[in-house]
Amino acid sequence: xxxxxxVIALCAVLAQSPVRAEALSxxxxxxxxxxxxxxxxxxxxxxxxxxxxxxxxxRIAHRMDASGEYERLEVLDGSPREVIRSGNEVRCVLxxxxxxxxxxxxxRRAFPARLPASFSNLAESYRIRKGEVGRVAGYExxxxxxxxxxxxxxxxxLWADAQSGLLLKSRMVDxxxxxxxxxxxxxxxxxxxxxxxxxxxxxxxxxDWRVVNARGSEISRSEGGWVLRSPLPGYSLMSIMxxxxxxERGEAIHMVYSDGLAAISVFIEPLQSQGASAAPxxxxxxxxxxxxxxxxxxxxxxxxxxxxxxxxxxADGIEHSGQ
Length: 323
Description:
Elements: H1 2-25, H2 27-40, E1 43-51, E2 54-65, E3 68-75, E4 81-86, E5 89-94, E6 99-103, H3 122-125, E7 126-136, E8 139-148, E9 155-161, E10 167-173, E11 179-190, E12 210-213, E13 217-218, H4 221-224, E14 226-228, E15 236-244, E16 251-258, E17 263-270, E18 281-285, E19 288-295, E20 298-304, H5 308-316, E21 318-320
Parallel strand pairs: 6-12
Antiparallel strand pairs: 1-2, 1-11, 2-3, 3-4, 4-5, 5-6, 7-8, 8-9, 9-10, 10-11, 13-15, 14-21, 15-16, 16-17, 17-20, 18-19, 19-20
């Protein structure tokens, strides 16, 4: 009887193994693990960011518990900066300017939580496949490759911890395979307790610090007053907000379009009487493409980590909804 029971148990294990192996061989399953791990796991680590001559090191601490999500990211190079997340509030701390900017979490998150919770339509814009297994920051990492199906987005290579699914390294590449930007952990601890002291600002913000409230208010498409007349393949409108521009400058309309991975922000703001036009045309800042145009008395600015042609096509397609 013992032998028979052992055989039955072994058969059960062997019957389940191919299912698990098949699940882990599916690249979409891996993307789901990566998206979940970045938001739900506790981790503390140091990572580097590289983009076209720019090199930056940051330290991050992330905790998820019953009360919500908490995170502190500190840039260790150049001017000191912190981004502190506590539930539905994000604070950007700029100690040299003695300024704190308060906002709500946006759709695009910081590394390693780069993937959105929903990415069901990614296969329409990308060919997704598994790559090789390597090592990143001492962990075994599975690579997932996303190749764009057109010239309106960049390719991505993601390396995820084989055990937890946490994103350990991400690389954005152009059509030639050249690296546009890269994030990579140099060391990271996954799991365990993340104490509150790791999540608090290390800068004393008492005294004459300035607090800027940059929170926007969600509005409907009809309230926005602007539409995209010529759809951009693969990109859908994700949100529309009104955002304050500051004293006596009114508000801007902020529209976000995304394909589930790449995102383009469009800001529409009234031109000031003293500044006739704001140098329309194409610009670039590191991995970010920027394009500006004027319509009547409004400045339209489109920007995102996408090819320049994508932001230009999107900005050129924005019009008054009444036209």
